[in-house]
Amino acid sequence: MADEPSAKSHHGEPSDKSNDLIDVHVPGEKREYTRTLTGVELHGKETLEIVCTSEPDKADEVMSRLRMKGGGLYPSFIGVDVEFTRDDEPPQMAAVLQLCVEELCLVYHIAAATKWPKRLKQFLQEEKLYTFVGFSIRGDKRMLNRSGLEINPNNFIDMQRKWKDPHTSKYFDSLADVAGGVIHPSYKGMKNKMDKGEHKKWGTTSRCQTTSSCT
C-alpha cells in the first residue's frame, strides 16, 4: 500500500494510448496514494471494503475484482457515482469516480491521479456482464464526458427516475430519501451530517476525504 509519495505533474496522462483518452486538466495536487479500509460499518452488520486510490494500477486491480463479482451475479449491477470539482472554480469536471459491487467499492481520485487506468474505458463501456446504476446519473455521465470518459449510453439505470419514495411529495426524491426508504431509515438525514467544506476537498486535494474517515 503506497502512501502519497512525491507530487506529480498537474495533467493526467492515459496509461495506454490505445484508450484514446485526452489529458484531464483538474485543480489540486497530483500524488499517488492508496488507502484501503476494511470492515467499514454501515447499518446493522453490513460492512464495506473501500479502496481509495489515485494509482492506475491499483484501480485496474480493483476493477478486475469488481468485474469478477459483477459477472457472477444475475442480474448484475455496478453502482456508480461521480464527485465533481468545485462549482466556484469552473469548468467543473469529474474529480472522483466511485464504483461498487456488493461490499467492495473503488474510489478513484481523478483529481489526484496523473494517469488513467488501462481498464477503465473498456470497463465503463461494458454491454453484457453488468448494468451501471446511479442516482441522477445523467449529471455524472456529463462530467465524465468532459474528462474523456463515457458510461455505455445503452447500459445504465437512473434510480432517481425508477423509484419513488411513497412518503414524500417531491417530484424527484433525493438520494437520502431513496436510501432511507430502500436500505435503512438511518440514511434519511445523511446529507445533514456532511461537512460541505470537507466534501469540496475532493476536487482540490490529493487525500481521500470521505465520511468513512478515508484520510
UniProtKB/TrEMBL annotation:
Instruction: List cellular component terms (GO).
Output: cytoplasm; nucleus
SUPFAM superfamilies membership: Ribonuclease H-like
Please list the residue ranges that the record marks as compositionally biased, kind Low complexity.
204-215
Region named Disordered: 1-22, 194-215
Q: Which GO terms describe its molecular function?
A: 3'-5' exonuclease activity; nucleic acid binding
List keywords of the entry alphabetically: Hydrolase, Nuclease
Q: Which domain of life does this protein belong to?
A: Eukaryota
Q: Which InterPro entries match?
A: 3-5_Exonuclease_domain, RNaseH-like_sf, RNaseH_sf
Quote the protein name from its UniProt record: 3'-5' exonuclease domain-containing protein
